[in-house]
TrEMBL record:
InterPro entries: NAD(P)-bd_dom_sf, ODC_Mu_crystall, ODC_N. Its EC number is 1.5.1.1, 1.5.1.25. It comes from Anopheles dirus. It catalyses: (R)-lanthionine ketimine + NADPH + 2 H(+) = (3R,5R)-1,4-thiomorpholine-3,5-dicarboxylate + NADP(+); (3R)-1,4-thiomorpholine-3-carboxylate + NADP(+) = 3,4-dehydrothiomorpholine-3-carboxylate + NADPH + 2 H(+); (S)-cystathionine ketimine + NADH + 2 H(+) = (3R,5S)-2,3,5,6,7-pentahydro-1,4-thiazepine-3,5-dicarboxylate + NAD(+); L-proline + NAD(+) = 1-pyrroline-2-carboxylate + NADH + H(+). This is Ketimine reductase mu-crystallin. It comes from the Eukaryota. PANTHER family: KETIMINE REDUCTASE MU-CRYSTALLIN (PTHR13812).
């Protein structure tokens, strides 16, 4: 009997570590993977007869949380069917994966990231585990990219469409300069075809962390041939002042951003999770904005106490752009929009698959099942 009968050709799954993930993942390809995830989830949310046959579908239950002494373990399984790996390609793939990720807030005191995870990628035909992808950087780039995609579809595209030269420039505010704040700031400066970044305002509870991010963004300015200014702000109010786009990425359990800090028209990506997922913005912000989510299934569970006008999923906004039937879900032209980012398994599924496929391409494809 062949040694592989009853097992499979590859004896062990591929392990793709953080350094490799950083080499393999690119902001533009990640964007396509995240758009596919958003669209797959929203296509699936439609009535079966109203689904688009040319778009991906998904299966993604609400994630589970297991509380431990020092933090929490999240289990995030998902399947995305018939998604495109690269923009414009005819090739489709289906991916089954599960991210296991922990959030241990006090890890900074022992020099570790507070969020640590892995994505397990399975064959969607045999169910065999094919790859384990370290998912700290992956979670950073996928979460920042989800905010970039939401910002583009909800705020920048409409702004570009009404700008005489089709160009938009923004003042960006980053409230919380930890790992996610840093990834979001870098994401905005690396993808300036969406909007030129004019100014970046930074606030962090410990100002030294904002100062560190300022240094990094000054380095990025040279690499990206940009000319934005970067300011470290003493207060959240000062950070938000005159911003067009804001990212909140803290662990705060208390409101940090109030309506009076904000311009009339602003887009906020609310990413951080304190005790619950909508703690960073004050009720007077939620009273006056339109909220967009990544997925209803998760929102029903994790945003159950949110009092606001939830318009719908970002993926449904994207689907209606390309298949213009029915009313537009876009924010009111002079209103405030909030992308309430929970984070969802489908994002890790499509980005995990992208990393794995790029790894196979870069190495020996022949070891594939
Ligand atoms: N929506 C999503 O998909 C994801 C959300 N997250 C959430 O994003 C947040 C940031 O995560 P990371 O940057 O990885 O963590 P990190 O540990 O690198 O940074 C945490 C940040 O929160 C700030 N912070 C903590 N408590 C605060 C308080 N009470 N008031 C003001 N600032 C406070 C810290 O100063 C720091 O800037 C967390 O809440 C995390 O759960 C993380 C990953 C994905
Ligand atoms: O979606 C994720 O990944 C996470 N979301 C909330 C905090 C931990 C990681």
């Amino acid at each position: 009997m062949s040694r592989n009968v009853g097992t499979n050709k590859r004896l062990r799954p591929v392990f793709i570590d953080e350094d490799l993930v950083k080499q393999l993942l690119d902001w533009h390809e990640a964007r396509h993977a995240i758009e596919q995830a958003f669209v797959a989830v929203s296509n699936q949310s439609r009535e079966p007869g109203a689904r688009y046959g040319d778009q991906p579908v998904s299966s993604q239950p609400a994630r589970t949380f297991v509380q431990a002494e020092g933090g929490v373990l999240l289990c995030m399984p998902g399947f995305v069917g018939q998604h495109q790996l690269t923009s414009g390609s005819d090739e489709r793939t289906s991916t089954l994966a599960c991210k296991l990720i922990t959030s241990f807030r006090k890890n900074a005191s022992v020099g570790l990231p507070s969020i640590n995870g892995e994505v397990f990628v399975f064959s969607s035909t045999t169910g065999k585990l094919e790859a384990i992808v370290e998912a700290n950087y992956l979670t950073g780039i996928r979460t920042a990219t989800a905010s970039l995609v939401a910002t583009d579809h909800l705020f920048l595209r409409p702004a570009r469409a009404s700008a005489p030269d089709g160009m938009v420039s923004i003042q960006l505010g980053i409230v919380g300069c930890g790992f996610q704040g840093m990834m979001h700031a870098v994401g905005f400066v690396r993808t300036q075809s969406m909007a030129r970044v004019r100014t970046i305002r930074l606030w962090n509870r410990t100002p030294a962390r904002a100062a560190q991010l300022k240094e990094l963004l000054i380095e990025e300015r040279k690499k990206t041939d940009s000319n934005y200014s970067v300011f470290v702000c003493d207060t959240v109010e000062d950070c938000c002042r005159d911003c067009d786009v804001i990212v909140t990425a803290t662990g705060s359990g208390e409101p940090l951003v109030y309506r009076s800090f904000l311009k009339q028209k602003v887009h906020i990506n609310a990413v951080g999770a304190g005790e619950y997922h909508h703690a960073e913005l004050a009720q007077d912000v939620y009273d006056d904005c339109q909220v967009y989510i990544d997925h209803w299934e998760g929102a029903r569970k994790e945003l159950a106490t949110l009092r606001s006008n939830i318009v719908g999923e970002v993926g449904e906004v994207i689907l209606r752009e390309s298949h213009p039937k029915g009313a537009s879900l876009l924010p009111k032209p002079d209103g405030m929009s909030v992308f309430q980012s929970l984070g969802m398994a489908s994002e890790d599924v499509t980005v995990g698959r992208l990393v794995y496929e790029k790894h196979l391409k870069a190495h020996d494809r022949s070891d594939r099942d």
